[in-house]
């Protein structure tokens, strides 16, 4: 397990004309007075966060309406200006006059809290840059607001094993690795976790040239990877790695702690201590999983320069089953009881975090490449002869009439590599079309699938589609 004293997060952002940005995380060792002050800041920021979020919800419910209609069935609220980011930031001046205890908090920290409100509400109403909307923002309960943000901090704030924060003074921290030469501190985040306080320093270096990865995938320098629950990764070179199941290993201990905690009185000291033990156990499980993911990513990148992985949407795979109703209106069994265990295994494996975050980050850092391919049908065809071999989810072995016999996940790994390389493949597949019009062969690539249709009346008809990939 990764030691909590050495736990750190590093993120690299590089592009054409963009500086290198890295984040280092260290363990803070504040004294008793500093801990009390940090806890006080978090509680005040939490209360103001909830107030500003409620103000936005209130305006949205009372003032929004369709452009061609008027809310006649309800009372019309007195019109007022929309509480957007800059208007709420200007309200901090009045806040300090009405509540003088907020003067103890640095102005930049308060402004960062307003920015968090604006970001949460904007993602709910408008969505992110890709148009994906988040869920409705929730009010922060006690101990749910855990981060204090300093958007700007002095470049020379770090002095040996101490770091200086505005209005907090010098705080001791464990510098388990030195700051890289040439980087300047741009931002700092103080976070309260289950086992103590941590600081995340955002560093920037504009002199480092941008990193560009230009590798052409070939048969020799590429590797196909299939991800699942039986084998966490099954590679095209026939190597497999089973998931360690860290949560399942600690599930009994976690159940006993939670049962013991629930038997204690609400608000009691004993219940609070047991809550802390439960949180530390969850933190240990998460760190074990993350450490294992990083080690596995290094092993995979040592094998090849280009990794082909599936473009999976784990949120869809772990979605609840739709309810079933009978003719009399009663609900029928829909298999959700068994599906809940499968969803727990998905969360325990952490496939999404590995494929979307850790593996691409380690590849970019090593100057290598991760390419995502469409996963549709990669387990239904034979990787050798490309015949259609129907399988159920419970069928874990692939057998084909051509003589190919291997684990189902290994067959998928080989096929993922072929799809990623864009090799022209011959496919004999089942089709609902008539005998007069059947696909003869197709050309697969990362972005498109081209069918060549042969009919009796027309010679060859070509068309392309991105959603018709059957491999």
What structural keywords apply?
471 residues; alpha+beta; 3 domains; 8-stranded antiparallel beta sheet; 5-stranded mixed beta sheet; disordered C terminus
- Give the helix proportion (percent range): 25-40%
Total number of helices: 9
Task: Characterize the largest beta sheet: strand count, sense, and whether it forms a barrel.
Answer: 8 strands, antiparallel
Taken in chain order, the helices and strands follow as EEHHHEEEEEEEEEHHEHEEHHEEEHEEEE
Over all CA atoms, what is the radius of gyration?
28 Å
Q: Looking at the structure, what is the overall shape? A: globular
The structure class reads alpha+beta
C-alpha end-to-end distance:
39 Å
User: Which stretches are low in confidence, meaning pLDDT under 50 for 5 or more residues running?
Assistant: 1-9, 11-16, 425-471
Quick check: average pLDDT? Answer: 83
Oligomerization category of the chains in this entry: single chain
Query: In the residues, how many domains can be counted?
Result: 3
DSSP summary, beta strand count: 21
Strand-residue fraction?
15-25%
Task: Give a brief description.
InterPro entries: Cas12f1-like_TNB (IPR010095), Transposase (IPR001959), Transposase_put_HTH (IPR021027). GO terms for molecular function: DNA binding; metal ion binding. This protein is α+β, with helices and mostly antiparallel strands and 471 residues long.
